[in-house]
# Entry
Amino acid sequence: MARERTLRRRRERSPAVAQDPKGEFRSQFPPLEILSADQLEAVHQASLRILRDIGMDFLHDEALAILRDAGADVEPGSQRVRFDPALVEEAVAKAPASFKLHARNPANTLSIGDGAMAITCIASAPNVSDAEGGRRVGNYADFCNLLRLAQSLNIIDLLGGYPVEPVDLDPRTRHLDAVAAMLSLTDKPVHAYSLGRERLMDALELVRIARGLSDDDLKQQPSLFSIINSSSPLRLDTPMLDGVIQLARHNQVMVLTPFTLSGAMAPASLAGALAQQNAEALAGITLSQLTNPGAPVMYGGFTSNVDMKSGAPAFGTPEYSQAVLAGGQLARRYGIPYRSSNVCAANTVDAQAAYESMMSIWAAAQAGASLMMHGAGWMEGGLTASYEKMVLDADMLQMMKRFMQPMKIDDDELGIDAIAEVGPGGHFFGSPHTLERYETAFYPPILSDWRNFETWQEAGSPTTYQHANKAWKALLAGYEEPELDQAIREELDAFVARRTEEGGAPAL
Amino acid sequence: MARERTLRRRRERSPAVAQDPKGEFRSQFPPLEILSADQLEAVHQASLRILRDIGMDFLHDEALAILRDAGADVEPGSQRVRFDPALVEEAVAKAPASFKLHARNPANTLSIGDGAMAITCIASAPNVSDAEGGRRVGNYADFCNLLRLAQSLNIIDLLGGYPVEPVDLDPRTRHLDAVAAMLSLTDKPVHAYSLGRERLMDALELVRIARGLSDDDLKQQPSLFSIINSSSPLRLDTPMLDGVIQLARHNQVMVLTPFTLSGAMAPASLAGALAQQNAEALAGITLSQLTNPGAPVMYGGFTSNVDMKSGAPAFGTPEYSQAVLAGGQLARRYGIPYRSSNVCAANTVDAQAAYESMMSIWAAAQAGASLMMHGAGWMEGGLTASYEKMVLDADMLQMMKRFMQPMKIDDDELGIDAIAEVGPGGHFFGSPHTLERYETAFYPPILSDWRNFETWQEAGSPTTYQHANKAWKALLAGYEEPELDQAIREELDAFVARRTEEGGAPAL
# Structure
């Protein structure tokens, strides 16, 4: 019966949104190098000097103990840790160059670090917005709808966190309901927040249940990832350090991302912000590898700049894009997969949203990133998840993905016979060579409106924003919940119920 | 007195639009190669086969005579010409790798082919549009205003033609008034249309007068350029061939740009469209070099694709961007400077206009283009020149230019002392290292609105389009007519008056 319903739904589904099929985002081009070998070495050495001479604060007793035991210099009566460069370099060298990130649906399992770029949905926005509803505080209904969109969009490979914060859920049990929803409404790999040990362990247990694995098997198969942000400059706070240690112990994926906003939490020079980013990333990765050598980690780059006049954060700027390339080179220097993002500072889905995101997407793709966070939906420097932006980003990412694929050059594609047949002054509209390629020759965009001006005007002069509004509704209407074994569903529900009854996790 | 007025105007000028200073757009990155050496050779060989076996129509007796004399195979009683590959390769090899394109203001003279990308204003749009006036047929008043904007925008290096067609001017004398306006309202290098010998020679005479040169000196100093479009597939028409021959004879710059729209005037395969583009470009360049070996030419790439469902031309697509890179490789193979464009198919200045143009700008910059046509203002596949898009493009180009510049890495920029001084948990807002960089650290955008949502909303929720509308008005208000020697102005006026009295050029 359930299967019949699914089939019926499939037939009734609107085919309004033509998407490219699922498949890896893989660039045919070698990564673009913005730093010379000497410059790369200078940034590396500067960050080692920062860790050796200035040091970094670790707000976590167990982390301090691990670092002290490994030979780091923990300042007595303080949380300041200084590192011998060799200690850092030896620890970082233990991180793997690639690993799998498993999904509950094996078809969605990702290879991280082998040249493809995995793309997440927007994560962690406090607000949500769409054309009709406007901007509003995050809530569970929108949270679920954005998950459905993330599941429906082929270009989205995994979830980067909560697309929007479901503020209407009790903060003590929010993580249980949210992760359970992620595991039932989607079947792509998931992220859990490092908001203390209990929440992270609850999420890991839910993932274990969804995958139907034993604890031991789960340790062999990384199945969730968590973003660890340093509190720049040069500080890692308690819940984040809980995350670093627990993720390493459970062999799950830790993405160390310093938030080095040049001119605010980092020097007002790109070189300085990069040196600080690198120092913070290396310090966190060092702790991970000292906790469990070989645990899967990623090197996150998020360096951008502020508007010097107002202090407002800016994204998708020339400086941001340069930092993205430099971050990729640093990550490659250490042989660690690189995380970048698709970001913008726009308040509405207009030209600014598009050009700032294009600057980000292109830089990430050319930096050889293995993970693009916030791939679709991000607005206002991350303060709002936009339904319309989600489709706009999906379209731009699909374009970039096509662009990054090799060109086919053979006799049939060169088509000299077709050119001879058409001849000077003719046209190719009806030629057999054209008809053979009718369906597949070129990228069919989701949003671009290529009608002539008069026809477009008669249709009401729709903007990309309005096309995106229609498209997400069609996608949502066509959403199909991925299959989930009934026994697993019951086990997930039972775990959520039990932990809810126990009171969840302490309020933050 | 005139100088006093200028100075007064300068002081009164609104400083509302912060632009980057004038300077070359030069990429720090090597050109991006999409074709392997074998693929590049395959396209080259395919185009030689097209020229040898299929041939091309030259609708011009003198061109046919030049080609016949050089040994090409002109089909008796026809305009079809077939080329021995060696003839093409030998002629093309005579084209110079670089040359100057002189402006009447020597400070604006350009070096073409030495690694920098010269950027033109939009050219040849039949319509013009702005937010208040809407879309209207091109006219002389808008033509002049767009020239003033092109003069005011530092990122615009030269004029690519009429930014919009001044339809209200008599077509017999339009070229006289239009070129005279270009030479007085701006002091950047100019383009003239190849619309028959008379118009081109009139333009050349106006340029000679503006530069105060003799005929002989003008022949030593290329001072105008003209776009030659083939009538794809495989045809060059009479006025264009007039242009090829006259430009070569007068040693002015000829830019051979096939309009190979894949799926319409070229095969529905990118490889086929490129082979045809290359054949047409090589044929035109061959004629130029046979007419005057060493005459300055450029290789133009304009291959894009149609929407296969409607036949509508599309721009800034993944296929377009791939063709841009491939075109750059072909041009480099022949050692000829490469022309690309900033194009989009959008009907309004929205996200589509931005992402399609970003795809074009980025591809051109990474293809190593020496000339970007239609750099600012192009909409609707070239059917409309938009005031607002002109500023949007200028901003995006400035961003790309900054991005393409090398990063500075030295002790001062790495700022370890500043990081030590601020220390873990501090902030860089007031640090001396930040204050030193306050004015110059980051790109100050013309349009991006980085205010937080609430402040932005209180300001009326302006879009990029609205910011662009304000910006072009401020630019126009601050426009200053460049100085022009009174004697030269009188000579220009006298020439226009004489040629007008003679009836101008025959209506087309």
About this structure: The mean pLDDT of chain A is 95. The two ends of chain A are 44 Å apart (CA to CA). Residues 270-291 of chain A form the longest helix (22 residues).
